[in-house]
C-alpha cells in the first residue's frame, strides 16, 4: 500500500479514535474521508449513502466540491458509483472518464480525476452506501488497497446502521438502512401484533472491529473453527437433529463448509488488514451474502441460509454469546423473529409480553404454528431473510390474517394497523356477547362447535369461547415439548386437568400422532423417504404397544367416574382399529383386576384422514362409536400435496368438487349408520368453509379457539336448508362456477358474516 501514514492497521486505529470523538455525525464523516485520503495517498475520498428511495447521496468528501455534499445524487446503476451499489462489488479503473458506466456530475468537479476505486458499504449483505477514492494520475490500485478500503467500509457500515447519520437526512430522504419494508409470508395464526423486534437467536453484535494484535486474532479464529467443527461433529454423532433444527443433509453441508479452505483463508486475509477475528467473519459473510443474493439458482440461494447460520455459530464460538434472548429482557410488546423454532422454545417466552411471531420457515401445520394459535399469538411464516432484514428493537407489525409484515412502518401504516387492532377488539366483544347463545341456524338446526386443544394454556378457552367441548385434544403436544418421555403419572395429571376444565362438556382425546414431521427429541429417528406416508400415528402405536398402553392406562384412570372418548389417528384399514380396540380392552381388564376405578363409559372412534378408509366406511362404521374427519391430512393425501411445501400447498382449492364429494360420502354414510361425525381440521376454522360443511350435512365442527366466535356468528344468520341445496347442486354436478365463489355471493346476498 502506498500509504503515507503507516498502512491499513494504523488507518483503522486512527479511525477508531475518530469514531470515539464527541463530535457530530457530519464532523465524524468529514474527518473520516480526510483520514482515508491521506492514508491512501488519494486526492479524493467520498462517502455516498443509499437512501430509502434507492438513490445514492453524497454525504462527505475530501477533494470534490464541498458544496456538492447532500446535493449530488444518482440512481443505483448510474455512473461508476451506482455500478458499485448495484453489483455490491468493488469497481476499479485507471481511466474513469472512458469507462462505459461513467456519469458526469458537473457540480462535483470530479472530471479532472482518472483513477477510481469504489467499494460497497455492506452489512449483512445489504448495500448501505459506497466508499470511493480517486486520483488524477492513471494509476492502478493494488489488491492490498482494495482490501483495506473494504475493511474501512465495514466500519462505516456500522456507523450507518446505528442510525447516527439519519439526523443528516433531508425530510423524505431516509436512509436505506432504516427504510420501511413490506414483506409477505404465509398466515399461520390470526391476529395483528404491533411491537418491537426480539430476535430469538440474537445476531452477534461485533463491538470491536479493529485489532491490537493480528497474530492473536488469527489464533482466536483458528481455535473457534476447531470448536465449530467439534460442535457439528457432536451433533452428527448424537443424531441431535431436533434440537439443532437442521436435517442430516444440512449438517453434513455445514461440516463441509467448516472445512472449506477458501472460506478460512479469506477470513485470515481480512484479519491481516488489521481487524478482529469477529470483524473478519462478519466481513467475509457479508461479502458472500451480497454475491449469493444475485444468484438466480434457487438451490444455491438456499445455501445462503446455511452459510448465515454457520457464520453466526462461528461468531458465537468467538464471543461466547448464548443462542437465545433472555425472556426477562423482552419488551412488553415483543414481536419474536426467528429462522425456525420448536413449540417448547415458544412456550419459554412470557405470554404477557409476546404480541406476535414471524418465522423464515414453518408452514400452517408446523407444531410451533399450532402452539401459536393456541396462545392466540399473531403468526406469519415463510418470510425469506427476515432475520437479516431487521434489528433488535425495530418497530414491526405482523398480520397473521393476511400474512403481511411491516418492518419500520411509516406513521400512516402504523395508524391504520392500530385501527385494525381496535376493530378486531370490538368484533371480539361482539363474539363474546354470543357465547351463551345456542349455536343454532335460522331454520332451527343445532350446530355443535368444539375447539381443538393440546396444551394446558388451551383450557380456559373452553369456557371463554362458549364452546360445546373439546373435539380434538392433541395428546402428542405434551410429548413434543417435554425434554424426556412423560411418565404415566405426568400424562394422567394432564388428562385429568383437561377433563376437570371441561366440566360436563365432552372431550375427545386423540392418541399419539407422532412420527413423520412430528419429531420427539428423545426418541431415535428412523430415516424415511416419505415420512408423512411412513411409520407414524397408529402404525407406530401398534408396533410399540408399550407406548400405546401407557397412554391408554393414563387416560382410563384420569376419566374414572365419567365418560372417556378416545380416537385413533391415521387409520387406513379396519384391522388397525380392531387391534387398537383390543389394546384398550386389555387395559380395562388389567385396571379392573387391580381394583382401579374406571370410566363410566368408554367411546372409541377413528380419524378419517387416509383416503383408503373412504372405501371401508361401511365396515368402520360398524365398529366405531364416532368418527372424526382430519381434513388437513385427507386433503393432503387426496391431492398428493405436501402441506408444508409453499410451491404446491395453495395449488388446489380445499372446497374443490373432489374434496366436497369425499366429505359428503363420509357424512352421508355416518348419518345412515347413526354414528356421529365431527370435522376437526383447518376447514372448520374459517366461516366460509364452515358454511360449506354445514351445507354438506356436518352438524359438529371442531376448530381453533379464536374461530368459535366468527363461526357462531355465521351459523346464527344461516339457513341450513338453503345452503344445503346450494352445496348439493355443486357436488352433484361439476358446476361452472367454483363453490367458493357461489358461497361468497350467497352469504353476501343474505347478510351472513364471513
TrEMBL record:
Residues 24-170 form the GAF domain. This is phosphoenolpyruvate--protein phosphotransferase. It comes from the Bacteria. PANTHER family: PHOSPHOENOLPYRUVATE-PROTEIN PHOSPHOTRANSFERASE. It catalyses: L-histidyl-[protein] + phosphoenolpyruvate = N(pros)-phospho-L-histidyl-[protein] + pyruvate. The lineage of its organism: Bacteria, Pseudomonadati, Pseudomonadota, Alphaproteobacteria, Hyphomicrobiales. Its cofactor is Mg(2+). Its main location: cytoplasm. InterPro entries: GAF, GAF-like_dom_sf, PEP-util_enz_mobile_dom, PEP-utilizing_PTS_enzyme, PEP_util_C, PEP_util_CS, Phosphohistidine_dom_sf, PTS_EI-like. One of its GO terms (molecular function) is phosphoenolpyruvate-protein phosphotransferase activity. Keywords: Cytoplasm, Kinase, Magnesium, Metal-binding, Phosphotransferase system, Sugar transport, Transferase, Transport. Signal peptide: none annotated. Belongs to the PEP-utilizing enzyme family. PROSITE patterns: PEP_ENZYMES_2 (PS00742). It is found in: Cytoplasm. It is an enzyme of class 2 (transferase). NCBIfam families: PTS_I_fam (TIGR01417). It comes from Labrys monachus. Its EC number is 2.7.3.9. The keyword Transcription does not apply.
Amino acid at each position: 500500500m502506498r500509504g503515507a501514514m503507516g498502512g491499513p492497521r494504523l488507518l483503522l486505529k486512527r479511525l477508531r479514535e475518530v469514531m470515539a470523538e464527541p463530535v457530530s455525525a457530519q464532523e465524524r464523516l468529514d474527518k473520516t474521508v480526510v483520514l482515508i485520503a491521506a492514508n491512501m495517498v488519494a486526492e479524493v475520498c467520498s462517502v455516498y449513502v443509499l437512501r430509502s428511495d434507492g438513490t445514492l447521496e453524497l454525504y462527505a468528501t475530501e477533494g470534490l466540491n464541498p458544496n456538492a455534499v447532500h446535493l449530488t445524487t444518482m440512481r443505483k446503476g448510474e455512473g461508476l458509483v451506482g455500478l458499485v451499489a448495484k453489483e455490491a462489488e468493488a469497481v476499479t479503473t485507471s481511466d474513469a472518464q472512458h469507462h462505459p458506466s461513467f456519469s458526469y456530475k458537473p457540480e462535483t468537479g470530479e472530471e479532472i480525476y482518472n483513477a477510481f476505486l469504489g467499494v460497497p458499504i455492506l452489512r449483512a449483505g445489504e448495500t448501505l452506501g459506497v466508499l470511493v477514492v480517486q486520483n488524477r494520475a492513471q494509476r492502478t490500485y493494488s489488491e492490498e488497497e482494495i482490501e483495506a478500503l473494504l475493511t474501512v467500509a465495514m466500519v462505516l457500515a456500522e456507523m450507518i446502521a446505528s442510525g447516527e447519520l439519519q439526523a443528516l437526512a433531508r425530510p423524505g430522504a431516509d436512509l436505506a438502512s432504516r427504510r420501511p419494508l413490506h414483506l409477505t409470508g404465509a398466515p399461520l395464526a390470526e391476529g395483528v401484533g404491533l411491537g418491537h423486534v426480539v430476535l430469538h437467536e440474537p445476531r452477534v453484535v461485533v463491538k470491536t472491529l479493529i485489532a491490537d494484535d493480528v497474530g492473536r486474532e488469527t489464533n482466536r479464529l483458528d481455535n473457534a473453527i476447531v470448536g465449530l467443527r467439534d460442535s457439528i461433529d457432536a451433533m452428527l454423532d448424537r443424531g441431535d437433529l431436533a434440537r439443532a433444527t437442521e436435517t442430516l443433509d444440512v449438517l453434513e453441508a455445514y461440516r463441509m463448509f467448516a472445512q472449506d479452505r477458501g472460506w478460512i483463508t479469506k477470513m485470515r486475509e481480512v484479519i491481516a488488514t488489521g481487524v478482529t477475528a469477529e470483524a473478519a467473519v462478519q466481513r467475509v459473510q457479508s461479502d458472500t451474502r451480497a454475491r449469493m443474493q444475485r444468484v438466480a439458482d434457487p438451490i444455491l440461494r438456499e445455501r445462503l441460509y446455511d452459510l448465515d447460520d454457520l457464520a453466526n455459530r462461528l461468531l458465537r464460538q468467538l464471543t461466547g454469546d448464548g443462542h437465545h434472548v433472555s425472556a426477562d429482557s423482552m419488551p412488553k410488546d415483543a414481536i419474536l423473529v426467528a429462522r425456525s423454532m420448536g413449540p417448547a422454545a415458544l412456550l419459554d417466552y412470557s405470554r404477557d409480553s409476546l404480541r406476535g411471531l414471524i418465522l423464515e420457515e414453518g408452514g400452517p401445520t408446523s407444531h410451533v404454528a399450532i402452539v401459536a394459535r393456541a396462545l392466540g399469538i399473531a403468526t406469519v411464516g415463510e418470510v425469506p431473510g427476515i432475520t437479516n432484514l431487521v434489528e433488535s428493537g425495530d418497530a414491526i407489525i405482523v398480520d397473521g390474517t393476511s400474512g403481511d409484515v411491516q418492518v419500520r412502518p411509516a406513521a400512516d401504516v402504523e395508524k391504520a394497523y392500530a385501527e385494525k387492532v381496535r376493530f378486531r377488539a370490538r368484533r371480539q366483544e361482539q363474539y363474546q356477547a354470543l357465547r351463551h347463545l345456542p349455536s343454532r341456524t335460522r331454520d332451527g338446526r343445532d350446530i355443535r362447535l368444539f375447539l381443538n386443544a393440546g396444551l394446558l394454556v388451551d383450557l380456559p378457552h373452553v369456557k371463554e369461547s362458549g364452546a360445546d367441548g373439546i373435539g380434538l385434544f392433541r395428546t402428542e403436544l405434551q410429548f413434543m415439548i417435554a425434554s424426556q418421555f412423560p411418565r404415566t403419572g405426568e400424562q394422567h395429571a394432564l388428562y385429568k386437568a383437561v377433563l376437570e376444565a371441561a366440566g360436563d362438556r365432552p372431550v375427545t382425546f386423540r392418541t399419539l400422532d407422532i412420527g413423520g414431521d412430528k419429531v420427539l427429541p428423545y426418541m431415535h429417528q428412523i430415516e424415511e423417504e416419505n415420512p408423512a406416508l411412513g411409520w407414524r400415528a397408529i402404525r407406530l402405536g401398534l408396533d410399540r404397544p408399550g407406548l400405546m398402553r401407557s397412554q391408554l392406562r393414563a387416560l382410563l384412570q384420569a376419566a374414572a367416574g365419567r365418560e372417556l372418548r378416545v380416537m385413533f389417528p391415521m387409520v387406513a384399514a379396519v384391522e388397525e382399529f380392531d387391534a387398537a380396540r383390543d389394546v384398550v380392552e386389555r387395559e380395562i381388564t388389567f385396571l379392573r383386576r387391580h381394583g382401579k376405578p374406571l370410566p363410566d363409559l368408554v367411546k372409541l372412534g377413528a380419524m378419517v384422514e387416509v383416503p383408503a378408509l373412504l372405501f371401508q366406511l361401511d365396515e368402520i362404521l360398524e365398529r366405531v362409536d364416532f368418527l372424526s374427519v382430519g381434513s388437513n391430512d385427507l386433503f393432503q393425501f387426496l391431492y398428493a400435496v405436501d402441506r408444508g411445501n409453499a410451491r404446491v400447498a395453495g395449488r388446489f382449492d380445499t372446497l374443490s368438487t373432489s374434496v366436497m364429494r369425499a366429505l359428503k360420502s363420509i357424512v352421508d354414510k355416518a348419518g345412515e349408520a347413526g354414528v356421529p361425525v365431527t370435522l376437526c381440521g383447518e376447514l372448520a376454522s374459517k366461516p366460509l368453509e364452515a358454511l360449506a360443511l354445514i351445507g354438506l350435512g356436518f352438524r359438529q365442527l371442531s376448530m381453533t379457539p379464536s374461530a368459535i366466535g366468527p363461526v357462531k356468528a355465521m351459523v346464527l344468520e344461516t339457513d341450513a336448508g338453503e345452503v344445503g341445496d346450494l352445496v348439493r347442486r355443486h357436488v352433484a354436478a361439476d358446476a361452472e362456477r367454483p363453490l367458493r365463489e357461489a358461497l361468497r355471493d350467497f352469504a353476501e346476498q343474505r347478510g351472513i358474516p364471513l
